[in-house]
Amino acid sequence: MSLTMEEQAKQVSVGSVNKVPMVKYTNVMKSFGDLEVLHGIDLEMQAGEKIALIGPSGSGKTTIGRMLMTLEEPTSGTIEVEGEHLWHVEKKGRLVRASEAHLHQMRTKIGMVFQHFNLFPHMKVLGNVTEAPRKVLGLSKEEANDRAIEMLRKVGLADKLDVYPAKLSGGQKQRVAIARALVMRPKVMVFDEVTSALDPELVGEVLAVIKEIAEEGEMAMMLITHEMDFAREVADRVIFGAEGHIVEQGPPEQIFENPQSERLQSFLKRIR
Ligand code: ADP
Description:
It is a single chain. By secondary structure, this protein is an alpha/beta fold. Helices cover 39% and strands 25% of the residues. It contains ten helices and eleven strands. Strands 7-8-9-3-10-11 form a six-stranded mixed beta sheet, with helices on both faces. β10 (237-242) and β11 (245-250) form a beta hairpin. It is globular. Adenosine-5'-diphosphate is lined by residues 32, 37, 55, 57-63.
């Protein structure tokens, strides 16, 4: 079958020159009513890349993550995952999204862990982790159990399969939530301030699990965090956002040791 010139050009650029990013935001704006919280975000993540989103509260970091998880719709702009549209919203409101079936398939590439765990309280730990693989991926009970146990082992909770969430510490709950997201084998995971609701002595165990997952290397990770030491250790690139803009980005050493913008300098001064 012969290809059109356009198709050939696409194949060349995909195959050799330009790698298709895992995630790409182009001129993404988001308003809640009259409040515009993102004013045109451009952001790319490569396969396996770990980025940390830092910045003052209310600057729009969570909203960036939630749009990727399809929990919020952008007001305008485009978000692509592996070169395919997740959202495409034209400026004057005409929304073009992927079809439901396609969106469903795209969503399986993305996982998210939230500040407040969001576990199902009426299900035991194993049930919490097997629910999505069974319902969304259609795995058999046995397959889902095998996968779930493997993930619970990874987060150090293989001995808690038959326990209800209410009996777990905050750190353990959050580790279940991480296993629940991992079990879907996403290509990109959003960790949204996953330690903010924890007692300080429980923060370390959760960060250690995330660090271990990061070191495995395969998954792209978006870490929305106030833990600067953690961002520095785990992220390949740190992105500083303020007031709905990306102000500065770069390798952790540059962002933390040699911040260029006054906005980032004053942010770092305040939190140190
Ligand atoms: P960050 O994660 O940087 O703290 P967020 O993305 O949570 O910022 O919030 C950005 C702004 O959007 C805040 O002013 C917040 O109050 C507002 N916001 C977030 N979600 C909603 C919502 N569902 N309805 C109205 N306002 C919202």
